[in-house]
């Protein structure tokens, strides 16, 4: 019987099967940020276990609240900063070099097909776009990951989503994943890996695949995953080719090696869903769960107070390009606050070079530094009670962006069109 | 090992998320104790008042997909510092469920119809839950107008989960074994 990609990764990384279905896996990467990691660090210190399993496999960033907004967030920054220094964690990204974790780590080439990745952040599933098994964990799992380089997971089943056809104009990967979450519900993939395949994924950029995998957790998925292919090789080439680590001499060689991280044709799935993306429409969430999804047309006219473009879901250059194409020579509607947070310094610089930042500013947007900021209501763009935001982020929980606030999740193009109209609007 | 016997808080809703258990704005706290007053502060469940209904409770009984959303272990911690060590639900989000066991707490499932029966029999009453780990049973008991209502249900922890509950968490287990 064939195996799924996730099964192959589990079998190649197993350290121990202490009890039944719980497998202890060796980790290739432990990612850290300043909100969940300092608690883990402080606990390890208090236990007299202040060591790290491998400083080269641990990568860290300050991204959720940066620059620090108060004494407490300044202290969180200091704890992780000193820890990175103490353990010679060279890939530590602080002010001036920092960006949203799930955007900056892929951009630095830290993820590879077949890797196991954990982080104290639920959207770690983003990194499955590279054909890795990547999962969000809590602080205790993070501590053990930092200390021992292992993490325990139940052996997961896989749900396969086959996306074929051509995206209609104005329909994006964000619309596809929101439509999938609507279809299976917010716990439709609990304890499962969501495997995205088919011709529509094959022709999708790495940015688009990351958007798809990012929101696997919103359907309860342990991880999202895409099969590594030539697009993956192209994205990683500067890191793995002769100009980088020199692991591969040619792209063909890299591709041949990456192909071992594919699901077999006779792999067993818990379910298979076939989706013709040519039938999809631009969509947005309503209510307070990510599976409450309607077409933008159905929600048209819903007034908004704020539009937020950014986050680990849609703050990459492709997202900013899509929004800028809609915003060009237009202005944000009176009474609407437009905020854009390029996800990383490289995205910010690229957006400046392409004139995208100017388009945003000319339209009346406020451009912030790269940060998670408004997405979870921690800084930079918190809503007041009763306010409504159109957002490219990943969660619409009640009060997520600020006590009493409502969030409508949508694509960057739809968010840009909404900013211009002042109410939910198709691009 | 934690105490799992005590009074029950009923939260009659599905999909209670981690932002509702503890909002992100409190994730700047660096001690568990500091989270205590903010647990479930924005939760909208009919008849629930976080200021009066959490104190003195040991268990939560709720519906489907409890703990969905963020990976923040602050969610189980916020329950723990309020004395809540066990959550009984139709189902849990994976990360939250694992976080509970990693902290030596219990997140256990009953069937939807069993949960429904518990709500119908006990919600609104001062209900005691007693947990027999060895026998794998959850016993609910309440008194209404002098009449005693009792219901007993089987629950099952995985071997690994039992080991974590007994060891007092994953750090101690992993430090000893890897």
From TrEMBL, chain A:
Q: Does the keyword 4Fe-4S apply?
A: yes
Q: What's the source species for this entry?
A: Teretinema zuelzerae
Q: Which UniProt keywords apply?
A: 4Fe-4S, Amino-acid biosynthesis, Branched-chain amino acid biosynthesis, Iron, Iron-sulfur, Leucine biosynthesis, Lyase, Metal-binding
- Domain named Aconitase/3-isopropylmalate dehydratase large subunit alpha/beta/alpha is located at 7-299
Please give one Gene Ontology molecular function term for this protein.
metal ion binding
Q: Which Pfam families match?
A: Aconitase
Q: Could you give a single Gene Ontology term from the biological process aspect? A: L-leucine biosynthetic process
Q: What is the official name of this protein in its record?
A: 3-isopropylmalate dehydratase large subunit
Q: From what superkingdom does this record's organism come?
A: Bacteria
UniProt cross-references to InterPro entries, sorted A to Z: Acnase/IPM_dHydase_lsu_aba_1/3 (IPR015931), Acoase/IPM_deHydtase_lsu_aba (IPR001030), Aconitase_4Fe-4S_BS (IPR018136), Aconitase_4Fe-4S_dom (IPR036008), HAcnase/IPMdehydase_lsu_prok (IPR011826), Homoacnase/IPMdehydase_lsu (IPR006251), IPM_dehydratase_rel_enz (IPR050067), IPMI_cat (IPR033941)
Name its co-factor(s).
Answer: [4Fe-4S] cluster
Q: Which PANTHER family does the UniProt entry name for this protein?
A: 3-ISOPROPYLMALATE DEHYDRATASE LARGE SUBUNIT 2, HOMOACONITASE, MITOCHONDRIAL-RELATED
UniProt KW Amino-acid biosynthesis keyword: yes
Automatic annotation (TrEMBL), chain B:
Q: Summarize the subunit comment.
A: Heterodimer of LeuC and LeuD.
State the source organism's domain of life: Bacteria
- All residue ranges annotated as the Aconitase A/isopropylmalate dehydratase small subunit swivel domain in the record: 55-112
* Source organism (scientific name): Teretinema zuelzerae
Question: What Gene3D superfamilies does its record include?
Answer: Aconitase, domain 4
The alphabetical list of record keywords is:
Lyase
The membrane spanning regions, by residue number, are none
Name this polypeptide is given? 3-isopropylmalate dehydratase
EC annotation from Swiss-Prot or TrEMBL: 4.2.1.33
């Amino acid at each position: 019987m064939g195996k799924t990609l996730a099964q192959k990764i589990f079998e190649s990384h197993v350290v121990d099967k202490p009890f039944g279905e719980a497998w202890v896996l060796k980790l290739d990467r432990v990612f850290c940020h300043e909100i969940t990691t300092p608690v883990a660090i402080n606990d390890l210190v208090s236990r007299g276990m202040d060591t790290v399993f491998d400083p080269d496999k641990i990568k860290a960033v300050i991204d959720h609240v940066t620059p620090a907004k108060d004494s407490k967030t300044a202290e969180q920054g200091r704890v992780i900063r000193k820890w990175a220094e103490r353990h010679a964690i060279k890939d530590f990204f602080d002010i001036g070099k920092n960006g949203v974790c799930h955007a900056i780590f892929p951009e630095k080439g830290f993820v590879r097909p077949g890797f196991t990745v954990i982080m104290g952040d639920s959207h770690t599933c983003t990194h499955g776009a590279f054909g890795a098994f990547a999962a969000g964990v809590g602080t205790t799992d993070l501590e053990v990951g930092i200390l021992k380089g292992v993490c325990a997971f139940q052996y997961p089943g896989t749900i396969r989503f086959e996306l074929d056809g051509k995206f209609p104009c104005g329909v994006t990967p964000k619309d596809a994943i929101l439509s999938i979450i609507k279809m299976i519900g917010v716990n439709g993939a609990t304890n499962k890996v969501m495997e995205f395949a088919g011709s529509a994924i094959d022709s999708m950029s790495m940015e688009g695949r990351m958007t798809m995998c990012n929101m696997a957790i919103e359907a309860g998925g342990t991880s999202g995953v895409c099969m590594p292919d030539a697009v993956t090789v192209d994205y990683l080439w500067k890191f793995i080719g002769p100009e980088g680590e020199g692991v591969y001499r040619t792209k063909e060689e890299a591709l041949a090696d990456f192909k071992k991280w594919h699901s077999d044709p006779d792999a067993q799935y818990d379910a298979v869903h076939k989706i013709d993306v040519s039938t999809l429409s631009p969509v947005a969430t309503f209510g307070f769960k990510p599976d409450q999804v309607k077409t933008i047309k159905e929600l048209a006219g819903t007034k908004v107070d704020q539009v937020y473009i950014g986050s680990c879901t849609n703050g990459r250059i492709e997202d900013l390009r899509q929004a800028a194409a809609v915003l060009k020579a237009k202005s944000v509607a009176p009474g609407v606050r437009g905020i854009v947070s390029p996800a990383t310094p490289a995205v910010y610089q690229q957006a400046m070079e392409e004139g995208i930042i100017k388009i945003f500013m000319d339209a009346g947007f406020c451009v912030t530094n790269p940060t998670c900021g408004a997405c979870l209501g921690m800084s930079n763009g918190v809503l007041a009670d009763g306010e409504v935001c159109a957002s490219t982020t990943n969660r619409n929980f009640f009060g997520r962006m600020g006590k009493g606030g409502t969030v409508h999740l949508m694509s960057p193009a739809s968010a840009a069109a909404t900013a211009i109209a002042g109410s939910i609007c198709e691009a | 090992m934690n105490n799992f016997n005590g009074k029950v808080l009923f939260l009659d809703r599905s999909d209670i998320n981690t932002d509702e258990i503890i909002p992100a704005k409190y994730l700047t706290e660096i001690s568990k104790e500091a989270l205590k007053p903010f647990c479930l502060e924005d939760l909208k469940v009919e008849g629930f008042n976080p200021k009066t209904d959490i104190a003195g409770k040991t268990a939560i009984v709720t519906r489907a997909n409890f703990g969905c959303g963020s990976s923040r272990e602050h969610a189980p911690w916020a329950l723990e510092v309020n004395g809540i060590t066990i959550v009984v639900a139709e189902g849990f989000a994976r990360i939250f469920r694992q976080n509970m066991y990693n902290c030596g707490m219990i997140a256990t499932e009953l069937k939807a119809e069993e949960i429904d029966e518990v709500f119908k029999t006990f919600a609104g009453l001062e209900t005691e839950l007693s947990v027999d780990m060895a026998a794998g049973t959850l016993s609910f008991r309440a008194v209404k107008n002098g009449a005693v209502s009792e219901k007993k249900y089987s629950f099952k922890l995985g071997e690994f989960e039992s080991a974590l509950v007994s060891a007092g968490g994953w750090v101690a287990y992993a430090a000893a074994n890897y």
